[in-house]
Design goal:
The protein is of the alpha+beta class and about 210 residues long. A seven-stranded antiparallel sheet has the order 4-3-2-1-7-6-5, covered by helices on one side.
Length: about 210
């Protein structure tokens, strides 16, 4: 029962070996520099780093690589990150750790740039996922309108020299040929000329003038 009652945790990242340094106070309006930490080959502590996510958030866990004993813990808030990059290297960071309400800043270094890159990616993925959960997309943004076609817009404008025709149902008529009038009768008769349309007689007068 005790095992079932334990909260499930997700491991977002593991570094097998990291170095921890004591860092000087930050000067006003200046960033941290690893070169100010003294001899980087002589760290204050060495161990492993895990980024652990639980239901109440994520945290950076500095642990002994052999025993798993906790050295320091840094709760990670995506809105107020506890991780800050230094100005002179991509492998070193400043971490804000907390213990019983007290805060302190330590330096952290990776042996390889690939490890620091994976560390950054893990934090970025967690931050992106957390912000998406806090601000879910609206219904209009999530579901596209069925009246709007999916894909790139097409250009239906006529290019220079292009024409188009319109076919209207029920309005189609035969093409006129020479010798055929609009009424469909032949115009080839005695006295006609040029195959033109014959003139119709005038309508009868409605009445005689007195």
């Amino acid at each position: 029962m005790d095992v079932l009652d334990e909260e499930v945790e997700s491991i977002l990242y593991i570094a097998r070996e990291i170095s921890v340094y004591k860092i000087p106070h930050l000067k006003a309006n200046e960033g941290h520099r690893a070169n100010d930490w003294g001899d980087l080959a002589q760290p204050l502590w060495k161990g492993r780093l895990r980024i652990v996510e639980k239901s109440n958030g994520a945290a950076l866990m500095f642990e002994d690589a052999q025993t798993g004993e906790l050295f320091a813990r840094a709760p990670y808030d995506a809105l107020k990150p506890c991780v800050e990059s230094v100005l002179d290297s991509s492998r070193y960071f400043v971490i804000r750790v907390e213990d019983s309400g007290k805060k302190a800043y330590i330096g952290m270094g990776f042996a390889e740039r690939t490890d620091s890159f994976d560390f950054n990616v893990a934090l970025q993925d967690y931050t992106k996922r957390l912000k998406a959960a806090l601000s879910p997309p609206s219904l209009d943004e999530e579901t596209p309108s069925p009246h709007i076609p999916v894909g790139p817009k097409k250009d239906y404008s006529l290019k220079e020299g292009q024409t188009f025709s319109i076919s209207i149902p029920g309005k189609a008529s035969k093409l006129l040929t020479p010798g055929t009038s609009l009424l469909g009768s032949s115009t080839q008769s005695t006295g006609s000329s040029g195959g033109g349309v014959p003139l119709l007689p005038p309508p009868p007068s409605s009445g005689r003038k007195k």
